[in-house]
Here is the input.
Amino acid sequence: MTGYEKIAVLLTELGSETSEKILAILHLSPAEMNKISKNIMALGAYNPRNLLHVQRETAVLEEVRKFGELRGIYREVAPQSGFLMVDDNLENLKKEIPKSPEDVANVLRGWLDS
Here is the structure.
């Protein structure tokens, strides 16, 4: 996946409010914003029964999670029930990301520069 494709996946996962905060921090050029918009449109509607969609989402969120763990801004917390499913990890990550838009913006900047 290209950096722009990863950004499109992540921003659609996070929703407009969080995405707007992150994009404001990045101060993207009109050309960069245009590329991101085109990639978001190319994604189409998310279908949780489509294996490609699920793998794409999981790969992007996993990359963000690893970035957060390496920099000490995200860590796993043991679940109350004793069981932690993959979907629980993703949902927990999506809840934590809006709390640190600057850190997520750093991930996106890295994707743009790669």
